[in-house]
Amino acid sequence: MRMSRIPIAAAQRIAETFGYDQVVIIARRVGEDPEPHGEHCTTYGVTRAHCDVAARIGEFFTRKLMGWPDLKAAKDTRAMEIERAARAVVIAYDESDGVDGDGGEWINGMDELRRALDAKEDQWPR
Fold first, then answer.
1. Looking at the structure, do residues 32 and 78 belong to the same domain, yes or no?
2. By the 8 A CB rule, do 44 and 11 touch?
3. Residue 18 — very low, low, confident or very high, per pLDDT cuts 50/70/90?
4. Confidence tier at 125 by pLDDT (50, 70, 90)
5. Distance between CA 52 and CA 74 in Å, rounded?
6. Which domain holds residue 44?
7. What are the angstrom distances between the C-alpha of 36 and each of 31, 32, 33, 65, 67?
């Protein structure tokens, strides 16, 4: 049988059938055979507060116990790196009077880049 993601609706059915407020499902296929193998986590809560608690439990299980990487933190870190690089381009542009190091003109769209960066000001820690 092929592995597939366990939908939140399945966790909701468990909660409703058995009377629970929070459901955390950890599923694993282990060993080298059959291929593929891997792990999956699905969480559910009957209210927003219960959803948050179930999600924190799922995060604890997957990150602390099972050693999954924190992909959201990695994505946020990469987004901050890209924003810093874009800010460096804007600073270089401002200091160059619109002429690049080879005497050519800078790319179009610098004003749009500046506006986008200004709109994101203070979103990421510096």
1. no
2. yes
3. very high
4. very low
5. 21
6. 8-65
7. 9, 8, 8, 21, 19
How many CB atoms neighbour CB 98 within 10 A?
9
- Computed from CA positions of residues 23, 41, 81, 106, in that sequence, does the dihedral angle turn out positive or negative? negative
DSSP one-letter code for 76: H
pTM of the shown model: 0.55
For helices 110-119 and 71-96, the axis angle rounded to 10 degrees is: 130
SS3 of 65, please?
helix
125 found inside a domain:
no
Question: Is residue 112 included in any domain, yes or no?
Answer: yes
- The answer to whether residue 1 sits within a structural domain is no
Is residue 41 domain-shared with residue 55, that is, in the same domain?
yes
Q: In DSSP terms, which residues pair with 116 in a beta bridge?
A: none
Task: Tell me the C-alpha distance between 74 and 71, whole Å.
Answer: 5
Count structural domains, the chain.
Answer: 2
Give the residue among 17, 18, 66, 20 at the shortest CA–CA distance from 43: 20
What pLDDT, on a 0 to 100 scale, did the predictor assign at position 65? 87
